[in-house]
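Fold this complex.
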Amino acid sequence: MPSERNFFDLKAYLSEKKATVDRALEVYLSEPEGPTYDLISAMRYSVFAGGKRLRPILCIAGSEAVEKAGMDVLPVACALELIHTYSLIHDDLPVMDDDNFRRGKATNHKIFGEAVALLAGDGLLTEAFGLMTRSELLERISTDLILKVIDMIAHAAGYRGMVGGQVVDIQSEGKEVDFSVVEFIHTHKTGALITASVTSGAILGGGNETQLKAITSYGKKIGLAFQISDDILDVEGDSKTIGKSAGADERKGKITYPTVVGLSRSKEIQSELVEEAIDSLRAFDHRAEPLRRIARFIIERKK
Amino acid sequence: MPSERNFFDLKAYLSEKKATVDRALEVYLSEPEGPTYDLISAMRYSVFAGGKRLRPILCIAGSEAVEKAGMDVLPVACALELIHTYSLIHDDLPVMDDDNFRRGKATNHKIFGEAVALLAGDGLLTEAFGLMTRSELLERISTDLILKVIDMIAHAAGYRGMVGGQVVDIQSEGKEVDFSVVEFIHTHKTGALITASVTSGAILGGGNETQLKAITSYGKKIGLAFQISDDILDVEGDSKTIGKSAGADERKGKITYPTVVGLSRSKEIQSELVEEAIDSLRAFDHRAEPLRRIARFIIERKK
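Structure:
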């Protein structure tokens, strides 16, 4: 449907969904008060530190690709953002990447101290699973599908997914490693949760086997493309725009696509992945247009 | 039913349930292999470091108190142990309590380093929610009850429960605080997950409203009694038996019941709580005998 395609405004779509996600997060994360004031403040600080809300938007768009009512998935979409945020807080800690800036702001432990930052991460990860059992979700979506999604997200975020990728990333710093190790880190550390984001939306939206297979394939491709584009931004980007220190990967001896296959081959791979991702969605109608456009956006972004 | 009561052997009960939980944990936590070898080894190291499995056993006993087939809850019982273990690993980190020994063994970060220990904790917390969606659970228990339990456990383990208690504990070290703060720390840091353990079992076992209310009351009382007995052991216990340094609370300026109300009043409160806990179960038959006996065991233990 070329006409619908021409009318689709990605910028407006992303900004509208981001605003919806932000409003929901405001409701889901209570205002700080009482003895745990600092903890809740720390959790909210990083959640509202200006994320793009890519994972929640992918979840909503994944649901829209298979049905109309994408907003039913909002608690799960927000849970994915909490998981992403917790991973950034823990990743920035001195015992991990030791970063002082994130999204142009001081990192969590720089403001709240390491102990509170660690616990804020733990609190966000735990609350993510709390969000996935919210009553408004249970009223609209079958409990079987919700449990399937909780299982998938726990798998993608845990030791067989994101946490596994982080361990290998930390342990590979400053070492000579095979291309297969870089691929493992990227597909696990970033790819797994991105794939789970779009696929969970499609599951909750009632997608059939064939649709879920196609969406999962799309998610894997853009997940890897996203991490490669992060690597490229670290080389080519400007610190002010990306909101963290450019060139940090090289200084830390991080294993990235540009260091292993070079910058120009990295860009080629990235573009191929995006084309393959879009091709995975060939059987979908105009309702998958946001996903197609997000795929291109991922490698065109400047931060 | 005094005859059944007389025949009940708590030691045999605890040891049989512990063996069952240990076998299940062996199945649930895969053997270390591949790039995440160290991560999985670190997760398994702390899970199999000799815990009493109190939370899983409370979950099973909570289920048995309302019905017969307590073993159906095994994945949730083990999930509670993973959550407890993750909290110990993070609690022992240098940025938190900075402990070198736990259960008579070197703490996780002393063996695997701080980064891997941090991620092992994250991996265990995430996998706990993965366990709660295992197929053998879904085949035996209604999805509504499972979701109710996931919600309750996320609440009890997160910022409104255990993580909230940990923050206040850390922030109160070396300060003069009110009795209400000590109570907050104890009911949140330890009490919340213990209450959730026994209540989740009763929910999954199909307990009715009245039963759940009684079991929750029991859980709250023994949760607080358990933490007070921990405080007392830290003063009176012998390092070798308790498996960590005795007197550590005092050296760290930790807020405990003995420091706030004195040792003898702490013991009185502890005994009162156990009697109240047992009284909460007065409407239950002999199937609640394990819970009654566990209540007394909690304050009689030497480690």
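The longest helix of chain A spans residues 209-236.
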